[in-house]
Write a structure and sequence with these properties.
Elements (H helix, E strand, L loop, with lengths): L2 H5 L7 H12 L4 H8 L3 H8 L7 H11 L3 H10 L17 H13 L5 E4 L5 E4 L1 H11 L1 H4 L5 H6 L11 H17 L5 H11 L21 E5 L2 E10 L7 H5 L1 E7 L2 H11 L1
Antiparallel strand pairs: 1-2, 1-5, 3-4, 4-5
Helix pairs in contact: 3-4, 3-5, 5-6
């Protein structure tokens, strides 16, 4: 096993076995369930989990697929077994993801005059269409827009959008449930877990009700108000289908629609 696999975040003493057992337990799968889904024998899986047998690269990929692991976690499983990563992790400016980048750009433009943003796995805002930029500039000011934005922190921090969200407790609770669900689904991603812990340190957060077995629903309506301008938005989260790149799989396109005719008229007027 190379030094990189030893340094991987969260890899335990019995890397492959402990990782497989942990993911299997989180998905409430027995050894029989996982072995059947992966197309291997229960005995073989038991030997892999207890380090009595060394799993091949192909077997690890079969198990990863049966567990429904993210591409980042599939790379972690391969590295724990001493193999090279299967999936790349490229910046959006890389030529290899140019087609996906063009599709995202088109999606953002076509959503005008309604807001849309693109975030990474840590909820950092990577792109925003003109409508989102106009709305956030109106609320936060041009100086704030010159600095990096984080989608979760924007709504949860007391000195960003929170003062302008009329139904903030409900919105904040929904965002916290979603953020926790995403962070707990990636226990090896220390960067994501660190961002989640930083969010929890923000003051005066509402007490959110977490259900370990329930997937968060769509984002609730957000009511924004500054002075006489009031806008209601309903959000939807889109992901890219069947990506073969870690970065692309982790991208989230947050698209917001006006909650009523008055909100639509304001967004149209801002675009004009």
């Amino acid at each position: 096993m190379d030094s990189r696999s030893n340094q991987h975040a969260g890899v335990p003493a019995n890397p492959v076995g402990d990782l497989l057992r942990g993911w299997r337990n989180r998905r409430a799968m027995s050894q029989a369930d996982l072995a059947f889904e992966a197309g291997i024998s229960i005995k073989h899986l038991s030997y892999v989990e207890t380090s009595k047998a060394v799993a091949s690269r192909e077997i690890l990929l079969q198990l990863a697929s049966a567990l429904g692991l993210s591409l980042r976690d599939r790379n972690a499983l391969l590295e724990s077994g001493g193999f090279a990563r299967q999936y790349g992790e490229r910046d959006l400016s890389a030529p290899e993801v140019a087609d996906a980048k063009r599709a995202i750009d088109l999606l953002l433009r076509r959503h005008e005059p309604f807001p849309a943003i693109v975030t990474d796995r840590r909820w950092n805002v990577l792109q925003a269409n003109g409508a989102a930029t106009r709305l956030m500039t109106m609320l936060l000011g041009a100086e704030r827009m010159a600095r990096p934005l984080n989608h979760m922190r924007m709504f949860l921090s007391p000195d960003e959008l929170r003062p302008y969200v009329e139904n903030w407790p409900k919105v904040a609770s929904a965002l916290l449930v979603r953020a926790r669900h995403e962070a707990m689904a990636a226990p090896l991603d220390l960067a994501l877990l660190s961002t989640w812990r930083e969010l929890l340190k923000l003051p005066d957060l509402p007490v959110a009700q977490f259900d370990e077995h329930e997937t968060p629903g769509p984002l609730c309506e957000v009511r924004l108000r500054k002075g006489d301008v009031s806008v209601g938005l309903i959000g939807a989260v889109l992901t890219l289908g069947t990506p073969q790149d870690v970065t692309l799989q982790e991208l989230r396109v947050e698209m917001f629609m006006p909650a009523d005719e008055a909100s639509e008229a304001i967004l149209v007027a801002l675009a004009a």
